[in-house]
Every structure is written in C-alpha cells, then in structure tokens.
Write a structure and sequence with these properties.
- Helix 3 crosses helix 14, helix 5 packs across helix 8 and helix 11 packs antiparallel against helix 14.
- By secondary structure, the chain is mostly helical.
Amino acid sequence: MADSYNQSNKAYRRSLMTHSIIRLIVCILLTIICLFPLYVIISNATRGHDEIINGGIAFFGGSLIKNIETINDPSIFAGFFVNQFRLWDGYRNSLIVAGLSTVFTVFFSGMTAYGLVVYDFKGKGFFTNFILAVMMVPMQVVSTGFLQFMFQLNLVGGPSAYIALILPSIAAPAVVFYMLQYMRSSFPLEIVEAARIDGCGEFRTFMQIALPIFKPAFAVQAIFAFVTSWNNYYTPSMLLGSADSSLKTIPMMVQAVLLADKLSDNGAKYLVITLSILPVIIIYLLLSKFIVKGVALGAVKG
C-alpha cells in the first residue's frame, strides 16, 4: 500500500510539474507576442528611414537625435492644423484632458453604480436599463448636435474647449455597467447598514468605506478611461481644430506628422508614435498591481 501510494504521489507531482512548465511556456510566448510590436516601434524610433526600409528588424539604431530634429522642423506641417510638433505642450494638454476625464469618469460612474446597488427607489430598473441602452449610441451619431451645442456655449476653438472635452466624461455608461457588475458580486450591503447604524453619513460611507473596497475596479476602469481619452482624436479635432497650435493634444500632433506629405522619414514617424504611448505605459505600470489584486480577489470569491 505504501509503495503504491508513493508511486501515485510521484506520478501526481510529475503531472503537476509538467502542467506548470507548459503554462509557463505559454505565458512566456504570450508575453513575447504582446511585447514584440512594442519593441519594434521603440526600436524603429531610434533608426533612420533607410535602416528601417532595408535593414528589417534590428536592435536600436543611432538616428534618435536626427529623428527628433526632423519632427521639430516646422516646414513639414505646412497646410495642417498644427504648425509645429510641440511635445511638452501636447503632453500637458493631453494630461489635463485625460487626467481630469479619468477622475470624473471613474468617480461619478462609481457613485452612480453605488446608488443603483445600495438604494431601492421607484424607477431603479428603468434608470439602469436606460444607462445600459445609452452604451449602444456611438459618439459619431450625436457629434453634429454636440458640436452645435458647444458652439452655442462658446466652448469651441480655445482654452474653453477643454471644458467640453472633460465634463462630458462624467456620463460614461460602459464604466457604470462594469462598476455595477463588480459591486453586485463583491460588495456586502451589510457594511452600509452597519455604517448607518453607527451614524455615518451616506457620502462619507461611500468615500471612506465603499471606495477602498472598489480600488481594483476603479484602477482597471481608470486605465481604460485614461487610454481612451489619451488616444481620442475625433472629439478634440472637432473642438480644437481652429485653436492655437499650443493647445492641441498629442493625437492631433501625431496625426499631423503621420499625414505630412513633406515627411517620408519612417524613423521620425515611429518616434512620434513612441512618444505618444509612453505616458500610457507609465499609467499602466502604476496601476497594474490593482488589476492583479482584482483578479486574485475574484478568484478567491469564486
């Protein structure tokens, strides 16, 4: 019996080790597949046009300074809505829009979902379904009316256009939907009842009790909201199209470089793409630990 048990235990360990090695290999392959395009973009940003065309995939080149000088040449932007690639201005403008939009999106969407989960009121089902129905309406469908309304409010073509870019982010039905599902599955309503018994106000309960529990969900949606707002070209191009070049966002400047007829240097084009995605990578690295915590929490609850 002991020999049979030992043999069975050894076979189980070998099987477990084999499965672990297979999973590790699959994860390594998936990591390489995901990171390889990013490596190609960053590598090509440091190489010259001829190196990219004739050299294929290679390690980092020595044309980074030349590429920086190329994208800062005002002559390549003739006829575009920007007259110069202003990296720091673009970073500042995009960070203002994306950062504030992310805060408004996550906070107010979380508060909306919290209200729909915690409170019982007449019309709760209707409002929930209405919010979900709004998800099916794309921005392009309502863009004409939205632009006309912004013209009436004088929020087009200047610094005031940032208001029109930021405030509408408060209404984010897709984020509300995700928060709603997360709260329904992982938020114990008994905590709210206990806080009320202790005399805690409703807003304070949300800020000091509910909000820390929702950190993983907030972090995930913050990443998605930031990336969406950072990469948004459609709405800023409508509202900032006639504004000064220093007010443009990074996607608008990148688009001007990529479409410039006078610029055929692929190295410079890869450089502006690399510069545009660096803040997104940094935000993801800062918030990724919360994603892992959220996955682990879901696994434990499951």
